[in-house]
Design brief:
- It is a single chain.
- This protein has two domains: about 190 residues, Hypothetical protein af1432 (Orthogonal Bundle); about 80 residues, no CATH class.
- Helices cover about 70% and strands about 0% of the residues.
- Helix 7 packs across helix 12 and helix 7 packs across helix 13.
């Protein structure tokens, strides 16, 4: 990651301010990571934010769970979803708010659809590969392009020009960002993840999702999220059009046929998430 770290340091002064994690979400995630924290304590923290409370109840009552009875309390929702999934929902809420901060609705919508689809595809792959914590992969998928949210918020006009270059000149997002800004969403995302104090494992997935061949570590989330990102492009949940090699397949011991099956399996859940999250 040294190359990205150096580029990130050079870009830091040109990006603008980084949004902080709202206190309620930060404290809620801390509690969800604490095995001794009770559901009652976590509920009390979440209830401090009415919008977040409504969001969690909406998810718990959605087609994602298909319950016969209505979920009316946050504690029941947490028990239903579990601590790991609740963390994923909090991260989704955080991400969506950042993507919705500035810019045109079309750009916001495409960025969000790509974020959610990558998260669901990554989680589905992780379950297929029997990885220990598919929810962590879901979170990593949600955050892999979070630097674009910062760019849209802080460099709105420039980001709109970047999207035009992608559409009209068929450039990749990396090429267009480098041309317009001199740095990319990868460096910006890395800086944000540092500020938000996410784990090194999640930062690795963000740093290498466009250059997985340079990754030499043993964090399986990196190739999974990289492949999920490409799958999202294949399914047309992005600005960029597919034009890449599926180099992750042999690393993950997957075939193109299996990948197509995973994509098909994930499609319905992607639609459910997009319906719930808007």
């Amino acid at each position: 990651m040294k190359g990205v770290m150096e580029k990130a340091r050079n870009a830091a002064g040109r990006v603008g301010d980084f949004p902080p994690i709202p206190t309620v979400i930060l404290e809620s995630i801390k509690l969800l990571n604490d095995p001794s924290a009770t559901v009652k304590t976590i509920q009390a923290q979440i209830l401090l934010d009415q919008s977040l409370t409504a969001f969690i109840l909406k998810v718990a009552n959605s087609a994602l769970y298909g319950l016969m009875r209505e979920v009316t309390t946050v504690s029941y929702a947490i028990n239903l979803m579990g601590y790991n999934t609740t963390k994923s929902i909090l991260t989704a809420y955080l991400s969506k708010n950042l993507y919705s901060a500035r810019g045109g609705k079309l750009i916001q919508n495409v960025l969000w659809r790509h974020s959610i689809s990558t998260a669901v595809l990554g989680k589905t792959m992780a379950e297929h590969l029997e990885m220990t914590n598919p929810e962590e992969v879901f979170i990593a998928g949600l955050l892999h392009d979070i630097g674009k949210g910062v760019l849209l918020k802080n460099k709105t006009a420039e980001f709109e020009k970047i999207v035009q270059l992608i559409y009209n000149d068929k450039k990749t997002s990396i090429q267009a960002e480098q041309e317009v800004l001199g740095f990319t969403h990868v460096e910006v995302g890395y800086l944000l993840m540092q500020n938000w104090r996410f784990s090194d494992r999640i930062m690795e997935t963000l740093v290498y999702h466009h250059n997985i061949l340079e990754y030499s570590g043993d964090n399986l989330m990196a190739p999974v999220v990289s492949l999920a990102n490409k799958s999202s492009h294949r399914l047309d949940y992005s600005f960029d059009k597919p034009g890449f090699q599926l180099t992750e397949l042999p690393v993950l011991q997957l075939t193109e046929k299996t990948l197509a099956e995973i994509e098909e399996e994930a499609e319905e859940e992607i639609k459910n998430y997009l319906e719930v999250f808007g």
